[in-house]
Design brief:
Elements lengths: L3 H4 L3 H11 L2 E2 H10 L7 H13 L3 E8 L2 E9 L1 H27 L5
Antiparallel strand pairs: 1-3, 2-3
Length: 110
């Protein structure tokens, strides 16, 4: 399990990445994250992040009929969301490289 403090800065962008694959809804996002190893990410954690992404213009929403009951809120990535995701990934790669370098060198910069 990934500690929640490590997830804090990245989960929002991971949710954005899931939405970038296809239009989707909250429960489906939760299930998709679990497939990638993000265990125990509840819908209660996801929905506040979805609201923030929507408020910041990174996703758009649309209500649609559901075959299993009330309408579902579907999420799609916006152009601003795509730009944000590209920026996040670029920064993530730099961070990953720095952390890997630190651990590979054992703290001994040559």
């Amino acid at each position: 399990m990934i500690p929640s403090q490590m997830l804090k800065g990245t989960l929002e962008n991971c949710i954005l990445k899931v939405i970038s694959y296809k239009e989707t809804y909250g429960y489906e996002i939760s299930q998709e994250l679990q497939k990638y190893g993000f265990s125990n990410i509840s819908e209660g954690t996801i929905y506040p992040l979805l609201l923030r992404l929507e408020k910041n213009g990174l996703i758009t929403t649309q209500y649609r009929e559901s075959p299993l009951g009330p309408k579902r809120k579907y999420f799609s990535i916006s152009m601003a969301g795509k730009k944000e995701l590209d920026l996040f990934y670029s920064n993530w790669m730099k961070l990953e490289q720095a952390v890997n370098l630190l651990f590979q060198d054992g703290g001994q910069i040559k």
